[in-house]
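User: I'm putting together notes for a lab meeting next week and I want to include a structural view of one of the chains we've been expressing. I don't have a solved structure, so I'd like a prediction I can at least talk through. The sequence is below, exactly as it appears in our construct file.
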Amino acid sequence: MKSNDLITVDLDILGGTPVFKGTRVPVKTLFEYLENNYTLDEFLECFPSVTRELARRVLESSESALLTPVAA
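Assistant: Thanks for the context. Below is the predicted structure for the 72-residue chain, given as C-alpha cells.
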C-alpha cells in the first residue's frame, strides 16, 4: 500500500501538514500521543475520524520505511 493511500498532503488542508487521508488529523499527532505514553485506543477516542485500520496501516508503513535497507 502506498503512503498516498493513507496520508494526504494538501496546502488547503492545514497548510500542507501530512494528515490521515479523509481527515484533518495530522499524522504527527499519532506519534506524539504514542511518544507520550498514550495508547492507540486513547488516540482513536480523541480522534474518531481516524479509523483503527488507517492508524495501524500508517504505523506499519512507517515501520517498513524505517527498516527497509537503502540501496547504496
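A couple of points you could mention at the meeting. Residues 15 and 60 are 26 Å apart (CA to CA). Helices lie at 27-35, 40-46, 52-67.

User: Perfect, that's what I needed.
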